Amino acid sequence: MAEAIINGLSGLVVGFQVLATDWRNAVMLIVGFVLLYLGIKKDCEPLLLVPIGFGCILVNIPLADVMSEEGFIRVIYNAGIATELFPLLIFIGIGAMTDFGPVLAQPSTFLLGAAGQFGIFLTLLLALALGFEQLEAVSIGIIGACDGPTAIYVTSKFAPHLLGAVSVAAYSYMSLVPIIQPPIMRFLTTKKERETLMKPVAKPVSKTTKLLFPLVITILGGLIAPKGLPLLGTIMLGNLMKESGVVARLTKASENEIANVTTLFLGLCIGATMVGSAFVRAETLIILCLGFLAICLDTVCGVCFGKVMRLATGGKFNPLIGAAGISAFPMAARVVQKEGQKWNKKSYLLMHAMGANAGGQIGSVIAAAVMLSVLAGMGIIR
Amino acid sequence: MDNVTFGITMLICGMGGTILTLWIMSLVMALLGRMFPEKPEKKEA
Prior knowledge:
The complex is a heterodimer of chains A (382) and B (45). Chain A is mostly helical.
């Protein structure tokens, strides 16, 4: 009788015993709290960091088995991450929320969106040099897309064991864009360049053009990079629904209910990949550093391309706009506007920067799509 | 395939492909903008 009671009671303390034997779980519990703190107190991407942080705490409580074969998070993971479904559902919502009008008013800003993707490929090279395997390097490089769903889509496909580190890096650095970008922008430009005034974008875009945009981009992008069509197709589907104006209920559901539910599950699953034994490694720290570098390189290349455009236009282009050619929409555009006004009170760069930023949104998806198709072309993936 | 070949191929084809694709898209969108310009609203009599 006494033995049975002692055995029964030991079942209540075994969790503490296991936690005490593996310090990595304890470290990850602290990481979970830090992520929750950043999300709740610092307002850094709270929609993602809160479920990620909580998922991280759940998975690091010993013996709870939330990620075992029958665990409830594993069921969600298998349904939405392993199948790559969640990032695509999020993309429909992003397409429904994004106004591509500014980039359509100035199609040349598409090119700024391309320059903002250089970081992906340069980081890929660095990751290879540091000894990561080829598909791991691709997944690390994609942090430079500055686009959470794209990073998750690519990583869950090629390096699922890195999903936690890559996702946390992608979302954390995205929220740090207002801190990361301005010093780089100032370092690479002269005072005169930063003060350049630009004419307002006054060119209106017809409804027909806005309607044809998602269709043309889907077909063209799909033909060039078919492997990335799920990414491109879903974002464009969302945008077509928004611009058509005839499926308001679907548009609303995509940008609210579907996006919200998917974000919750996605965050929880990402957090649940951050189990101590797999996450507390030097490799994770290197990935976080490379992710930071990727976003810095995106900004550097964007601003440098802005300088090229300034040369091409005879000094009429403000190179700060180049920094907006990344996918962090509309945060990067706001950073450019704020920085521009800091140097010239009459400067109003927002609409130009929004064009570059929308170009960056498409650019990141195209870069991932091109990457997948090049990998397929080389026979590395099917 | 060795890492150097892989990395350089990804840099050239990946970045080149991205720039080329977005450049083509910008041309097509500029063309669409010209084909379907925004018409000013007719004033009511």
